[in-house]
Amino acid sequence: MNLILWRHAEAQDAEPDLARELTARGRRQAQAMAQWLRPRLPERCLILASPAQRTRQTADALGIDYRIERHLAPDVDVAHYLAAANWPQGPEGCGGTAVLVGHQPMLGRLASLLMAGQEMDWSVRKGAVWWLSTREREGREQVVLRSVTNPEQL
Length: 154
Known about the structure:
Elements: E1 2-7, H1 24-37, E2 46-49, H2 53-60, E3 67-68, H3 78-85, E4 97-102, H4 106-116, E5 129-137, E6 140-149
Parallel strand pairs: 1-4, 2-3, 2-4
Antiparallel strand pairs: 1-5, 5-6
């Protein structure tokens, strides 16, 4: 399975939280990451975005259909993210690839859980993509970090 964690790009400070929109810089970040990500995605994949406006605007930059998933909202826990992606089996009918457009601290906690075996407050930069995969080696399933890319690197 491929699990792609995409943190929303830079957003305005405003209330209510779910209505926060991307800044001009955030829109540029989302576009840059989308241009990098789009050609690397398989033809069929599941793209899920939090119901927050800033995550939907980030996902919009891909120009690919996605689904709003309430289990990726800012106030959920890592278990909800795992369930949304159907980890580790992967989404059915989607080529085994899920893109989750979500929030900190859950994306960092999810990455640490999958890679280090426990939830820790790892930092995921605004607009960044962490690409994780599963593989079997010597009869054991492993999580492999394929890429960490943020807009400033592009």
